[in-house]
Every structure is written in C-alpha cells, then in structure tokens.
Write a structure and sequence with these properties.
The structure is a homodimer. Helix content of chain A is 83%, strand content 0%. By secondary structure, the first copy, chain A, is an all-alpha fold. The interface between A and B is medium-sized, with 32 and 32 residues.
Chain lengths: 220, 220
C-alpha cells in the first residue's frame, strides 16, 4: 500500500515538473514573441495554453483520487494539498504567458513595446525566464537555495515594474494611449508572474523545512 | 462520527459565507471610495484585506484538518477540496477590492476616474456589487439560479471593460498618462473580479448538480 502511495506521490511530483517545464517554455517563447514581434511564436504560445490548462485539470483529478483512495495524513496530506495549490499557480503563470503573447499578436507587425522601454522589458523577460527555469528545477530537486534566487528575481521584477510606471508617469513619456495601455498591462503580467513563482517556491520550502515562509505581500 | 463531520462541513460552509460577505463589503466600499474619492473608506478597505487573508488561512487549515481527521471520500471530499479553491478565489477578490482602494487613495484628493468614464465605472461598480452579493447568497442557499445571473454580470463586466479600451483607444481620449494607467488597471481589476466570482459560482453549481460547467475562458 505504502509502495503504491509513494509511486503515486512521485508521479504527482513529476507531473508538476512537467507542467512547470511547459510554463517555462511558454514564458520564454512569449517574451521572445513580444521582443521580436514574432506573431507565429505568439500564436504557438496562445494555442499551447489549452494544454497547460488540461495538465492542471488532470493533476487536480489525480490529487482528489489520491486523497480519496489513499487517505493521506500529516506530511503526505500536505504534499497533496500543496500540489493542488501549486498547479493553480502554474496554470496562472501559463495564462500570463498567454496574455503577453496576445499583446504581441495584437500589435503585429509593430512591436508592442516602444523602443524607449525595450531594455526594461528585455530585463523583465530575462528575469521571468530565470524564475520559470528555477521553479522547474526547484520542483525537480527540492534544492531550496533556489527559492531565495526566485525571491530575488521577483524583487527585480517588482523594481522593473516600478520602472515602467516611472517611464509612463515621469513627464517625458510620448507614447500614444495604446502604448500606455500595453506597457501598463505587460508590466503587470510580468510582475504577477513573479508573485506566482514565489508562491510555488514558498510551498516547496514549507514542504522541505516544515516552516511557513512569511506570507507573500500581494502586490497590485 | 458522521454527526461531527456534518457539523464540521456546515461550519466550513458558514466560514465561506462569512468570508464572501466580507469580500462583498470590501468591493462595495472600494467602489464607493473610488467613485467619491473617499480616502478614509479606501484606507478601511486596504486595512481590512489583512482580515480577509487571515480568514483564508484559517479556512484552509480547517480543510486540511478535516481531510486528515475525517478522511472524507466521494461528495464530501469534493466539498472540502472545493472549499479550498473557493477560499482562494474569494481571497483574490479581496485583493482586487484592495487594489481598487489603493488607486482611489493614490489619487486623493482628485478622482482617479476621469469624468468622461465615471458612468462606465459606476456601472462596473454596480455589477461588481451585485456579483459579490449573489456570490454570498449562492454560498448561503445553494440556489444555482443565482449562478447564471453571476455569469450575466460577468459578461457585463467584460463589456464594460471593453468600453474602457474603446474610450482609451478610440482617438478621442484626452486623459494624461496617469489617467490612462489608472483606467487600464481599474478596468482589469473589475473584469478579474467577475472571473473569480464565476469560478466560485461554477464550483457551487458543480457540487449541487454534479456536472462541470464549461471551463471559464480566462480573459486578460
């Protein structure tokens, strides 16, 4: 019985890793699509989000079955409940990648990000890709040192998000309303991406150490 | 044993109703604060969000304890897992109310919403308040007829969100970048509020009817 349960828990872990890897690909491709105005890549990200959503549903069904059939307690129970929550965070990260891709597609053949902010968004993209990659690795190897680097990159994403507001509101902004709207939403998507990754990282940390990290201050 | 379990499930239901009622108050007050530039009310909403977050944590801990101690299966298990998910949606709705209040506070003593869009945001506020009230009532009485009116108001929120883009991008917009940013974010907060309420409504419907409603198409 315990063997079966361990195998099922291991499978759950592998599913989370696979889902995270797919989200990592989505955010990577969405950022490239955004920065290079690549509409084909944007379309691919948008289409693939349905697959990420399906992974979430499968994973959740598996968790519910596991709860029903194995009736886990203590740490095992926390692992299953955490998996339910982490899959929800990963699904939202997939949605955010899709939103970035939708903005890229909507402005094609133009670039959605104005020249003056392309450096800022290139940095956001790099930070988001690092966050996504480390989230996958953290789920894979439970090396909680990665959690703190995810938190650092989340802080960086917050700063870069602030930079976009400074650019928009500093008085020197010459963008049209469409550019203002796009920068506002894109900045928020990247910032939220970091928040969700931190949420996953804290859950893994909690499972490994048994200690709740300070609650994430949810930002706008 | 069953009696205790039924009492605990009933308590869980009551906790969700209480949490939803508090979110309903938050969205109501946040909208009033926004539309009337009432900074005191905005501060109250922002402060109260910590209480909503605490309710989510308590509710989740109770769910995990219930899973551990009662080992529910079948419908009972679905109820507990749904409660975990609904509390997460309600918590996000509370966050969104706080975000609206933060925008109101940030622009005080000015109005965050420009005159030309005050009618649109008054309609969004009304729809959001109806959605919040019906979500509370639905959790209370499980009258799934309410779910369809929540879906209708969510559609209305989507349309009003589109109206804000039309206003911003139609060529006649004369707002400054701060106003463009505020309208962009506020529109999104209200639109997301509807999405989360629909998610709660579909979970209740599923528990009552046993049939999954079509998946929510997640919008930007």
């Amino acid at each position: 019985m315990r063997d079966i349960f361990d195998a099922e828990l291991a499978q759950l872990g592998e599913d989370l890793v696979a889902m995270s890897a797919r989200v990592e690909r989505a955010i990577t491709q969405a950022g490239i699509a955004l920065l290079s105005a690549d509409v084909t890549l944007a379309e691919a990200v948008i289409a693939d989000d349905l697959g990420i959503d399906a992974m979430e549903r499968d994973l959740d069904e598996r968790c519910v079955l596991l709860l029903a059939q194995q009736q886990p307690v203590a740490t095992d129970l926390r692992i299953v409940v955490s998996a339910l929550r982490m899959s929800a965070s990963l699904e939202r990260m997939g949605d955010l990648a899709r939103h970035v891709a939708q903005v890229a597609r909507g402005r094609y053949p133009r670039h959605a990000v104005p020249q003056s902010l392309s450096g800022t968004f290139a940095e956001m993209h790099d930070a988001a890709v690092r966050v996504a990659r480390r989230t996958t690795t953290l789920l894979e190897n439970r090396d909680i040192a990665l959690a703190s680097s995810i938190e650092s990159d989340d802080d960086l994403l917050d700063e870069l998000h602030e930079d976009t507001f400074t650019a928009l509101l500093g008085g020197a902004w010459v963008g049209n309303p469409q550019e203002t709207v796009d920068v506002t939403l894109l900045g928020r998507y990247y910032e939220r991406f970091g928040d969700h990754a931190v949420s996953v990282a804290r859950r893994v940390t909690y499972l490994v150490t048994g200690a709740h990290a300070a609650e994430t201050p949810t930002t706008a």
